[in-house]
Amino acid sequence: MGFLSDLWNVVKGVGRVIGRVIATVWGLLVGIFDFLLGFLTWPPKKLRYQVFILSDDKGPLIDPTALQPSIDFFTKTYKDRFNIKVIPYGKPNIQIIDEKAPSAALDVSCGGGAFSGEFGEAGAFFAKHLAGWNLIPISLAFPVSIFIVRSMTGADGCSIGPLTDYVTMTPSAVGELNVLAHEVGHSCSLWHSGSHSNLMWPDPTRGNDVKWFQKNLVRSSRHVQYL
What we know:
A hairpin with a 2-residue loop joins strand 1 and strand 2. This protein has one domain: 3-Layer(aba) Sandwich (Collagenase (Catalytic Domain)), CATH 3.40.390. Helix 1 packs across helix 6 and helix 3 crosses helix 8. It contains nine helices and ten strands. The chain is of the alpha/beta class. The strands form two sheets. Strands 1, 2, 3, 4, 6, 8, 9 and 10 form an eight-stranded mixed beta sheet that branches.
């Protein structure tokens, strides 16, 4: 990849981050009621998601049916704990990206490596396949895209936090029922909890309890809408 291509990827990456900052601020402005009173978990809200399974030279990384238990746990937990109805953004809710993904998108890192990847080939690939018009600051919906990748350094599931519109998970993370719900929690402004029974405990042995202020944060997220 040449210098100009690298520079263009950086420019696009910066643009994505700026767009998400604007969208996050907008979400806080329109979600001020839930930011202050979200612990009431009323009225019901909606969160839209879309799953994308990446492919390598051997084909899709996982059978779509393997994801259903994680989606069921995600759906039930957000309904029970936040009064949020989790619904697919498109049909089908699990889609396979048939084109072979670049190695940078197939084998990702978490933490600082994930953030730097936003400005490279992996970030460009994920941005290309995101569900929804996520660079427009005012939108009817900001769905969360879930990308199933081949491997991950440092974790089996990852989210950079509320500035992003996607999370990444490995096939092994799909076997842990609560990883999807946990990573989407990061996208909805939640950080790790020190309580083992909490949904945001950093290990898959976590429970699915949430604290009152976590309800406020999730329900005021731009990913969570009334319509």
